[in-house]
Input
Amino acid sequence: SVLVLVGVFLMILWGYNTHRVGPMALVASGIGLGLALAWRGDRIARTVPPFGHSLIGVGIGVVYLTLYLGHVRLGVLPAWAAFVSLVAVSFASVLAGQHYGVRQIASLGVIGAYLPFMMAAWLPLAGLWTSAPGLLAYLAIVNGFVFVMAVRAGWSGLDVSALLLGTLAWIWSFHSASWGWGIQAGLCLLFTLLGFAPLPRLVGVEGRVRPVDLAAITLAPLCLVAASWPFLAHTDRVPIAMLLMVLAIVQLSAALWVDSQRPERDLWRPLTAAAILFLAAALERALGTDRAPLAWCLEGLFLVALGLTPRGGGWLRAWGSIVVAIGVFRHLSMVGNNDWSPLLWPVFYTDGVRGLVVTTTVLVGGFLLARRRDHLSRDERWTPDAWTALGHLLLAIWIGQEGTHVVARMFSGPHPATPPGGIPIGQRREEMTIVLCGLAWMAQAGMIALSAPRRGGAFLRWCAGVMGAFACLVVTYHHTRGDTWRPDQLPVLHLPALLELTTIAIAVVSSIILAEGRDTRGPGPRAQSEQSESTRWMPEIWAAAASVVLLMWTHREAGHFAALTHPTASDTWQRARQVGTAAAAITSGAWLIEATVLLVTGWIRHSPFLRWSGLALFGVVALKFLVVDLQTVDVFWRFLTTIALGAAMLAMSYWYRRRAPAAPAAD
Output
């Protein structure tokens, strides 16, 4: 049947282009052929119904083709005659469909109505297109009977065909926004009515509706956006935002009406999805590209909060997650492409505020989902953890960006041509950035550890561990980038050293908090198992990382102290040797103190790990003394270090013997 329609279309064009048949004769013969096919189909339908119905549909399609080409291409029919004729054919199609109760007739009629647009997209048929008002009127005529059949007979498949074919016809006809607000309003009304056509019949149907009905409701807003895209993208933002907001209100009103009339929520879902998408598009048009991620994340958070109410549901939570993901992706695509300068304050500029609001929104969403975890389905159990992990990732990115800006602001003033100590400003700026970001990231890791509940919370503790490990790696990287300490500064009390020491202190406190959470007994065996098995060694890992970073910190500060105690020397090589000797001895002493503290803390907190760590560090100090110190230090430092190391080890041995449990008495 479709091939016959294509053949008739090409036959009319062949007759017109070759001038072998006059335009009036072509129109008359085309209409006569269509009526003959419809009449013959009516007779054949009495004995062979499917074949007869196909001929009726082909006949209606041929009449559509002839009338349209007779006005647009052949120029035989004036506009009013073509309009009246097409209305009459549409009305006849409605009557035929109702009379025979066969949607195949209507489908072939719709294909015949849209066939010129599909063929002209593949063939060079210049002069076939009409104006935007004429095409809109034609679409309204053709889709009028589609709307009636969708409302009365439930032919949603015909509705889907009309939506798709009408969208393609409009896209192929106009590649730019060559129409005004009146035509756009007509398009919105046309596609919205086609999408709402199944609703009056479906709200009274019990049980789930057919997928084709849902497809008609879902495709209508998407087809509207596709057909209107040139207009929506190249018109002033504010009027377009108002139009999209009106469409969102219309879709939301339809969703609320359906929800009040029907207990099932299968129709409510596509309507709310359309309202959400129109609202997101309206916010982007109204606020612009830079501020749209803020609005999208807040919209997604609002949807998640609604989804956690008794009348909400997983559908709203899912769409909230989707909208937030779009906002986050858009925000990340703009990170680093900001116009910040040292003349501006960090954080208080467009990109900084946007990053802070987006991050806060995602973290609040994760908190809400975690608090109402009992409202989530089995398939949604992972969403609170995903939101929380994404929020902390965004926070880490924001911290890195704003930490760089803070340091740039600190070094934005006038600088001397020759910096103190001969250290370039760029190197000092890089060191300060690394140390400051490492401190902030370690503080973030500690915050995650504090927020992990005592029962469960294994995922948050793993997040804290990963974040803390990253901060430790950043601090370790700092020690490989050279030393910017100057002799005019005091050891330990200069800013980078204090920041790094604060980072280590946060790691130690986090280790203590995690250890206390592990030792707390939960009321159930499952909570205790999750708490003690999946993150059992997390406190020890934090303590080990803090100890290693502290060793590097004491080694560097020992060098600073040694350099300060040997300010001048006649020979540069001699001074370097003296500084190295003193630094090695001071490092051994500092490590010895750290080993003692670890051992004593292990006894106080009843931690075998800390005790073994202290003993291991004693061994490292002894090995360092034998291999390095005895070969490099002078006699004074040799006997001083030896006495200190031996006395400390004897004291620890005595302490162990006093603390060891008494042996059982012999029988």
Residues 521-532, 662-667 have pLDDT under 50 and may be disordered.
